[in-house]
Amino acid sequence: MKKWLIFLILVPAFLFAETGLQIIRKLDQNRGYGTQKYSVKMVIQKGKRTQVKTFTGYGMERGDKSYMEFTNPEDKGVKYLKIKDELWIYLPEADDIMKISGHMLRQGMMGSDLSYEDMMRDEELEESYDVKLVGSEKIRGVVCHKVELIAKVRDALYARQVIYVDKKKPVALKMELYARGDRLIKTMEQFNVKTIQGRAVPMKIEIRDMRRKDSLTTLEFVSVAFDIKVSSRVFTTGNLKR
To answer: Looking at the chain, which terminus has fewer C-beta neighbours within 10 angstroms, N or C?
Structure first.
């Protein structure tokens, strides 16, 4: 009788336990959108030096298309356009459009810890990685699923990722990003998660490039909106010079 009681208690827990793949699918689903508009304050700290930049942007088709324009005085008018796996920058001082490709994609955007490759990343994680739930861990007091991702395609941005996903919300509170040889090269932490139009949205992101000493980039979202009307003309190279 006792064995049957234990069985009845354990079976429901087994049936409703989430797999790593299910957790990542929810994460990907939460990240998806038709259109997006945002305003961001970016703080770049390099040792004792601090830079503050601001930009506004639009996204379409889950980030396949995106447009950003810097608004702070030092960078006013600098614009970025991303269409799938292609990226352009417009420099107002030179009145010139330049395509960013090759080794340039590994550089930090505007000197930040966020690389152009990070900007280009928009794939669904399960398409590029084998996924495994390896346990649970508290991140800043919040119980999270600990999920390991191992690259299964050659063009995956990172060889391995360890992602800590809030058990109550489909959002990663921390990401550890590794290169080949299992070298930790970057961490990302997300804070102040708000529900906006049914999505869990982190309003603050901290990025550290572990290859740089005393380096930190903070992105603070001033505003975020989804499913708005955006003209397709925004996502054209002709719009960069306007």
So the answer is: N
What domain range includes position 187? 20-225
The number of folded domains in the chain is 1
Place of tokens 């058990």: 167
Burial of 149 from C-beta contacts in 10 A (0-12 / 13-18 / 19+) = buried
Locate 93 and state its tokens. Answer: 């001082």
Query: Which residues are CB-contacts of 219 (< 8 A; sequence separation ≥ 6)?
Result: 40, 41, 42, 114, 204, 205, 207
In angstroms, the CA 197 to CA 22 distance is 22
79 part of a folded domain? yes
Contact between 214 and 47 under an 8 Å Cβ cutoff? The reply is yes
Contact 39, 59 (CB under 8 A): no
53 contacts: CB under 8 Å, gap ≥ 6: 41, 42, 43, 44, 70, 72, 74, 75, 110
Instruction: State yes or no: pLDDT of 228 exceeds 70.
Output: yes
**Residue 87 forms beta bridges with which residues?**
82, 100
| pLDDT tens-digit series, residues 23-46 | 999 998 998 888 999 999 999 999
Q: Which of 79, 112, 110 is nearest to 93 (CA)?
A: 79
User: Distance between CA 42 and CA 40 in Å, rounded?
Assistant: 6
Neighbours of 109 (CB within 10 A): 22
Assigned domain for 8 exists? no
d(CA 203, CA 39): 11
